[in-house]
Amino acid sequence: MRGNGNRPPAEERDPSEGRMSRRKLFGLGAAGVAAAGAGALATRSLVEEPPAALAVDHVSAPVPFYGEHQAGIVTPAQDRLHFVAFDVVTDKRAELVELLQEWTAAAARLTQGREAGAYGAAGGPPEAAPDDTGEALDLPASALTLTVGFGPSLFDDRFGLTGRRPAALADLPRFPGEQLVPEISGGDICVQACAHDPQVAVHAVRNLARIGFGRVSVRWSQLGFGRTSSTSRAQATPRNLMGFKDGTNNLKLEDDRLLREHLWARGDDWMAGGTYLVTRKIRMTIETWDRTSLAEQEAIFGRDKRAGAPLGGKAEFDPPDFAAKGPDGQPHIAPDAHIRLAHPSNNGNAHLLRRGYNYVDGSDGLGRLDAGLFFMAYQRDPRTQFVPVQTALAKRDPLNEYIKHVSSGLFACPPGVRDAGDYWGRALFA
Asked: How many Å apart are CA 47 and CA 29, to the nearest integer?
């Protein structure tokens, strides 16, 4: 469980503790006194192994933070999401690098069930703000993962990154019918926090935002519940708010060959071992859908609602037979069924690793739920994977009568953090 906030021994304290500046006291708030500047690197040395008292089941146990790839991508999808996109408000490259170092140090602690900073929520100097907000004290790690990505807008002329923008991070085209709201789209940096406990996920995002004060500001964020995809064969396929199993043909962490081919970026640049994330907030007109006949709902998706089997099949994972016809001579799966339009066989063998969540953001003031799907898909190159699939769906999918895309994001997610001397995006700034 997260630490009790006891004050560290003298040898672990920041030597400048007795002469804190006004910036450290009131403006930094970043990771408390100990995480300022070079202290952020020292803080990483304080990351410890999770305590033995921590529950070992998958719901509460920690997920390893260090590795070749970032956690939170092929990690078995957790139940809750807090996704946030930040704008960088400093124009100083050194401050951005320092922020990423501090964030990485905090993330290494948080994902192991510890507090964001060395002093914790109640162990630092009383005249300084705590370096953890405290609402997750006594809660286990809850399989928290924190995954970071860099948006196209980060690669302008502010930080000398213009020439380092990957070709695969090309702006998405405008798709027919989308109604994007600029204020909840884009962003310089994204953080995806997934956990089995929503308070743990929210706590992590809150503390990263606190650490980033004065260097980043929140552009938009999204809470999600009830994962809509399985990323492991050990997980049952969940349902979206339309009642259908979602992402049956998703890439899974067990699909080593397919992951190498369709998920992880290759080459010798800073993105090798990373991946690309597309997000779309898709609002559903729930009330209209709920008045649609079962036969029409199943025809639109091309699947049986209860079993999830492709029409004409018997079980969820039966391969769809797009040539099979019913007694009336018509295809079991209509030419414009969602399953047909999105299938890899109709999109140049494009596979995606989907990691979406349901959302309900209250009502719209007109007696309708503001609800739908927060879609997230990881892939090796959005130009050859997400773009052709979404183009086909935007043009022909009858599901468009019941949904609208209101937010969009595109992010380059760097490879994993290898050890305590590494940090998110280090190779980009090398």
From this structure: 20
Instruction: State how far the alpha carbon of 93 is from the alpha carbons of 89, 108, 155, 160, 326, in Å.
Output: 11, 23, 12, 8, 63
Q: Comparing C-alpha atoms, which of 147, 158, 150 is closest to residue 189? A: 150
Helix H or strand E segment including 85: strand 80-88
- Measure Cα distances from 321 to 177, 250, 309, 317, 344 in Å: 29, 18, 11, 12, 13
Cα–Cα dist 399/297, whole Å: 9
* pLDDT tens-digit readout, 281-312: 999 999 999 999 999 999 999 999 999 999 99
CB 396 within 8 A of CB 341: yes
Residue 211 scores a pLDDT above 70: yes
- Residue 69 corresponds to which tokens in the numbers above? 């790839």
CB 98 within 8 A of CB 31: no
Helix (H, G, I), strand (E, B) or coil at 88: strand
Token couple for 93: 């490259």
Whether 420 shows a pLDDT value over 60: the answer reads yes
Q: Which residue has the tokens 């990505």?
A: 149
